[in-house]
Design a protein that fits this description.
Pfam family, one: LysR_substrate
Radius of gyration: 29 Å
Order of helices and strands: HHHEEHEHHEHEEEHEHEHEHEHEH
Number of domains: 3
CATH architecture of the largest domain: 3-Layer(aba) Sandwich
Number of helices: 13
InterPro entries: HTH-type_LysR_regulators, LysR_HTH_N, LysR_subst-bd, WH-like_DNA-bd_sf, WH_DNA-bd_sf
Distance between the termini: 45 Å
GO molecular function, one term: DNA binding
Family: Belongs to the LysR transcriptional regulatory family.
Keywords: DNA-binding, Transcription, Transcription regulation
CATH class of the largest domain: Alpha Beta
Structural class: alpha/beta
Helix content: 40-55%
CATH superfamily of the largest domain: Periplasmic binding protein-like II
Length: 300
């Protein structure tokens, strides 16, 4: 029972007449009636009582109509998604994100997306966490990743994952033996800092903000790759979410331990999308794929 036959049946049930249904669908009455007769033959029962005043559903027809309504709604939904996939084959998507996600997570996610959408192009730029909402809200970028916090009505977080700030250290560092570390634990060790202010969300623990501002870094860099190398060379420790070091942690090249701060451990990073303007087809498809990718982070 293909879509055309079900559509003809539904319209006839709605209009109560083959002639009126055919006129509404812009097909010949004979073609529409033939489709209904084929349905009745396939099901082995009459779907309409043919009365002088028109067509009236039988009990079997009522049952079929219930099925048809749901089937055609779902068919239209699937067809819309297929059209969306076709429209997303080409285009451009701009993403703005906190630096740690650009090191590994987003390049890998885009590479997997590229397998299905090879003609889409991207702009992938690091930004201060506090600037990401503005850049997405004003249309500079289609999507953004930043720490979860209050946002204007023009934005919404599509998905969130835990992203506490912790201590990244060489794999053989003494603090690796601890499950959680305190500010006093890390104070004696050389500190490596990323250039720029901490995200406002880090101020959820006022003690951490005071402690961090009082440290004198051995090395300051705006390159997370440089800081990664410096950590592996045992130049010091650094404070990051683990999301920028997943591969190194898995390979045992560095270790990550959370602070013993419930507020810091409640920090999350989310995917920001516009709430007041429709995304382009490729941006919509990429956002859906990134939600799936973030689900993998949840279980990592």
């Amino acid at each position: 029972m293909h879509a055309a036959a079900l559509t003809y049946f539904r319209e006839t049930a709605k209009r109560g007449s083959v002639r009126r249904a055919a006129a509404a669908l812009n097909v010949s009455a004979s073609a529409l009636n033939r489709q209904i007769l084929n349905l009745e033959e396939e099901l082995g029962t009459a779907l309409f009582d043919r009365l002088p005043g028109g067509m009236r559903l039988t009990a079997a027809g009522e049952l079929l109509l219930q099925h048809v309504v749901g089937t055609l709604v779902e068919f239209d939904r699937v067809r819309s998604r297929i059209d969306d996939l076709r429209a997303a084959r080409t285009g451009h998507v701009g993403l703005s994100a906190v630096d740690s996600l650009l090191v590994d997570f987003l390049p890998r996610a885009l590479d997997r997306f590229r397998a299905d959408f090879p003609a889409v192009t991207y702009a992938l730029d690091a930004a201060n966490p506090a600037d990401v909402p503005r850049l997405v809200a004003d249309g500079t970028y289609d999507l953004g990743f930043t720490f979860v916090g209050p946002t204007p009505p023009s934005l919404r977080f599509e998905h969130e994952v835990p992203a506490p700030i912790g201590v990244v250290m060489p794999s053989d560092h003494p603090l690796r033996q601890k499950r959680e570390v305190s500010f006093d634990d890390v104070a004696p060790y050389p500190f490596l800092a990323q250039a720029g202010p901490l995200p406002r969300s880090a101020d959820v623990d006022a003690g951490f903000a005071r402690f961090r501002s009082g440290l004198r870094p051995r090395l300051v860099s705006n390159s997370i790759q440089a800081l990664k190398t410096a950590i592996r060379l045992n130049m010091g420790i650094a404070f990051f979410t683990r999301l920028g070091f997943l591969e190194e942690i898995e390979r045992g090249e560095v270790a990550w331990r959370p602070f013993d701060s419930p507020a810091i451990n409640a920090l999350r990073i989310g995917l920001l999308v516009p709430a007041n303007r429709p995304p382009t087809a490729p941006a919509r498809q990429l956002a859906a794929r990134l939600v799936e990718e973030m689900g993998r982070l949840d279980s990592a």
